[in-house]
Fold this sequence. Notes:
- This protein has helices spanning 2-29, 33-60.
- By secondary structure, the chain is an all-alpha fold.
- α1 (2-29) packs antiparallel against α2.
- The radius of gyration is 16 Å and the shape is elongated.
Amino acid sequence: MKQYAGLVIGVILIFIAYGAFRTGAHGWESGYPDLGLWWTVIGAILSIAGLAALIGTWIHTQAREH
């Protein structure tokens, strides 16, 4: 069950990061470089968090060989 929770959280964070990148792109296109910059930074942080959740879930749910 923990594996599915971690994967779902990771995927949700990746989707939110995608939305932040799209908002940043719209900011750049509309002539608001400050909004473009900060939404891109937020998207990068959310991407890192999403990847960390996915990779961490994969690492911690592997069967240990003893």
